[in-house]
Amino acid sequence: MGEWKHARASAAAMLLLLLCLNEIAHVNSQRVPALFVFGDSLVEVGNNNFLNTIARANFFPYGIDFNGGATGRFSNGRSLVDFIGEMLGVPSPPPFADPSTTGSRILNGVNYASGASGILDESGRNYGDRFTMNRQIQNFESTLNQYRTMMNPAALSQFLAKSIAVVVTGNNDYINNYLIPGLYNSSYNYSAQQYGSLLVNNLGRQILALHSMGIRKLFIAGIGPLGCIPNIRAIGLAPAGRCMDLVNQMVGFFNVGLRSMVEQLNRDHPDSIFVYANTYHVLGDILNNPARYQFNVVDRACCGVGRNRGQISCLPLEIPCLNRKQTVFWDAFHPSESAIYVFAWRAVNGPQDDCYPVNLKQMALI
Predict the structure, then answer these.
(1) Are the C-beta atoms of residues 34 and 107 closer than 8 Å to each other?
(2) Known catalytic residues?
(3) What angle do CA 138, 143, 144 make, to 5 degrees?
(4) 239: pLDDT confidence band, cut at 50, 70 and 90?
(5) Residues 263-312: tens digit of each pLDDT
(6) Are the CB atoms for 176 and 185 separated by under 8 Å?
(7) Residue 339: CB partners within 8 Å, gap ≥ 6?
(8) Residue ranges per domain, the chain?
């Protein structure tokens, strides 16, 4: 009787192993088997739910237009990676910090992004705990250790080479560092140009760390026009109805440096493809030509308190605006689902002005 039970258990284990191997084979046959997501709240899907932080979005009205409700996405609906995944035919990967993100759940990638995080370790510390970019790379290493138990080295190498890493970071190095001189010394220690170079150099090291671990396709987003977000407008230092040009000029130094870095990386690593996503250009186009995209509110948030609904970001149980599809900004810091969709579509399909040197659809074919 005992032998029969043991045989049945062995058969079940073997069946489970075969199913897992079939799943791995299927994943590796896909053009883009997985997405690995690094960055901040623009691409987070719930890591901060598991951290000791006030930078969270796991409460209503976040997710008011999302099937899963308030998941930790800093949006009224889907995130950038949800849309990119849909367009490329890859399921949006689960948050790293979720204990259930293991086994077959990681076969389409993992999302490491964390609200309030930045390129620099200190950025966003005013919100509490977060996965900094350096910590996210360490977390990716622990995921690799899981993959090594599931695939042989050749299969893992192929899997990583065909997958795409999405990197969206740098925003909090301004919003929650350089632009808060009362809490951070960075604006005293660096000119805007020096600070942009500091960020690009640090991000370059982080990108090379991912490359050294086997990633060969990296989509790296620049920073949008931060001087136009409701929170910066709410400071009231710009003329009424205008963006804060000084802040936009600051992030311009970072974006120029980042594009140059991407060009250099492509020259240095012909076995790989690095893409610069011109976030500033795309969101700037939306803000300058809102009617073209069916938007009619560009200067205030849908959910938030105070001037431009941007002085205090979206609060629990707050009633948001009803015209969410026509509003560019969801809360004090983040675009609405509708604006995110425009950026995602142009990231996947856009010309070189949007994504350089290729878009995500072209990257997937390489």
Answers:
(1) yes
(2) 41, 331, 334
(3) 95
(4) confident
(5) 999 999 999 999 999 999 999 999 999 999 999 999 999 999 999 999 99
(6) no
(7) 283, 286, 293, 295, 328, 329
(8) 30-291+348-362
User: Does CATH number 3.40.50 belong to domain 30-291+348-362?
Assistant: yes
pTM of the complete model: 0.92
Does residue 93 contact residue 38 with C-beta atoms inside 8 Å? no
8 A C-beta contact, residue 262 and residue 274: yes
Cβ partners under 8 Å of residue 29, min gap 6: none
What is the phi-psi region of residue 102: left when phi exceeds 0, alpha when psi lies from -120 to 50, beta otherwise? beta
**Sequence letter at residue 173:** D
- For residue range 34-82, what is the model confidence (pLDDT) as tens digits? 999 999 999 999 999 999 999 999 999 999 999 999 999 999 999 999 9
In percent, how much of the chain has pLDDT > 90?
A: 90
SS3 7: helix
Distances (CA, A) of 20 to 26, 95, 158: 10, 21, 17
Amino acid at position 236, single letter: G
